């Protein structure tokens, strides 16, 4: 029996963002952009969606005089990611 | 990477693996300059003090200042990497190494120049301490742990060779000549892994 996959995570870019953040404490927006190869606009939209679902928290700070956006995964996001992996297993084991 | 909701399970898994691996690679890349920087200066000062004589051992203090200043610049020009458990662990391993051996060095130094009573620091009758040997071992342990955390086989092997090789080899030589072994330990334990990782990850030399 296939388990349903969380539609919020079942997207290439959002899944990549969550995968980056799962193994880190926090990551800055430019780093995520560079690693995923996404455009700033598209990434921003996807980050907002994840943030609206409370999967990640976004903190806007300053690094010196330059604005700096830091993303970190929340407990809810971690649980959702783990559930996604569990659901994924049901597809891979068939 | 664009918005694509029609992912297969295999593609999902591929994305997850790829991104986790990328973050590990960023941290590995960022550790290269520190390895080469510290390793090179340890070699230079080991050879220098071995050449000039034991009376010049206070030059180690100058080396620490040069390395610390360089490390500050290296940290500033690092490519962006996320704060992670891996990076934190590596930092803590080397901080622990520095803390232990720095403290031992200072206490022994104070004992040697009479600030602390020598008989209290190192009672001759009971203890035979070969500090270069122990530092080599500590070096090797820190480098090997770093290799395991980064899952880098070369660093694991170099750390083991440097640590165990240095520990036993230094005991074969009189005190001042042990510094030549220390230079070799730094070369094998820090510089070689740094250069190999640099070649593997394609970092340019400035």
Automatic annotation (TrEMBL), chain A:
<keyword id="KW-0238">DNA-binding</keyword>
<dbReference type="InterPro" id="IPR036388">
    <property type="entry name" value="WH-like_DNA-bd_sf"/>
</dbReference>
<dbReference type="GO" id="GO:0003677">
    <property type="term" value="F:DNA binding"/>
</dbReference>
<dbReference type="Pfam" id="PF13601">
    <property type="entry name" value="HTH_34"/>
</dbReference>
<dbReference type="InterPro" id="IPR027395">
    <property type="entry name" value="WH_DNA-bd_dom"/>
</dbReference>
<feature type="domain" description="Winged helix DNA-binding">
    <location>
        <begin position="13"/>
        <end position="92"/>
    </location>
</feature>
<dbReference type="InterPro" id="IPR036390">
    <property type="entry name" value="WH_DNA-bd_sf"/>
</dbReference>
<protein>
    <submittedName>
        <fullName>DNA-binding transcriptional regulator, MarR family</fullName>
    </submittedName>
</protein>
